[in-house]
Amino acid sequence: MKYLIKGLKIVLTFALLFVIAIVILFGHPDIPLNELKAKYTNTESSFISVDGMDVHFRDEGNQTDSIPIVLIHGTASSLHTFDAWTNSLKNSNRVIRIDLPAFGLTGPFPDRNYSIANYTSFIKDFLTALKIKQCVLVGNSLGGQIAWNFTLEQPDMVEKLILIDASGYPLNSKSVPIAFKLAQTPVLKNLLTFITPRFLVRPSVENVYFDTSKVTDSLVERYFELTLREGNRQALVDRFKTSKDISAYKNIKNIKQPTLILWGADDLLIPVENAYRFHKDLPNDTLAILNDSGHTPMEESPIESLELVTNFLNNVQLKK
User: DSSP string of the chain?
Assistant: First the structure.
């Protein structure tokens, strides 16, 4: 018996030393918000108080545009994912983009409620705070799911809808970023809130790209550092454990707005089959599949994807 106890103590000691080594090697403290602001804001950045949060957003371009384009990013991303699109669109349109709660510089929801209903309520409050009555609403991935749900809830506020590799249908992923897997794994998801190995970030980003050569060091650094904004790591875990409405997609057929469905043909996270589901259910849509592009075509293939967007905007008359 004493040998068993002695052996158990040895095992526990090695386990403890292993955990300590992991923390020392891969543990990262939160990066102070002021440091992140200094690096990831510019002269176009603003902050506005919405629902108890200091929300980071950028409002650029033609301020006389009565129906601005509002861009919503996906999980673990930020408003920077639309940099290239904005640089072009702002020449003729008013373009507004935000860091969603849980991501970027905005930080977590105070109540840690990451339901789609709470996100759509937030978008309503944000647009109301900016006195925006109507917009062209654009969303990628999670942002797309928020966008189509918001359109159903507030149809008078959405003139047109653009869904980019949007979530919402039952998911059958062909591949999932490792960071997403860890955020859903018991025990490991708790470690993720303070142990965030930098070497896991690149493969996670590459997982949603078709052409991994486009995943630059600066891109990886941005994703990594904004994850270390206080509260964002816990928010990612909270987001993945939030109960999902598995029947909400049945209401997609009720969306009447002109809609562009834009999809990367090589999206492994939300495969292109889902694009065809949107196309089948939406009564007033345009389907555009972009070859050699993954889950974030606006970031990976900005020129090609923006051409499809501008064609859609120009060919469907807006009520100015």
Answer: -HHHHHHHHHHHHHHHHHHHHHHHHHB-PPBPHHHHHHHH--TTEEEEEETTEEEEEEEEE-TT-SS-EEEE--TT--GGGGHHHHHHHTTTSEEEEE--TTSTTT---TT----HHHHHHHHHHHHHHTT---EEEEEETHHHHHHHHHHHH-GGGEEEEEEES---SPP--S---HHHHHTTSTTHHHHTTTB--GGGHHHHHHHT-SSGGG--HHHHHHHHHHHTBTTHHHHHHHHHHS---TTGGGGGGG--S-EEEEEETT-SSS-THHHHHHHHH-SSEEEEEETT--S-HHHHSHHHHHHHHHHHHHHS----
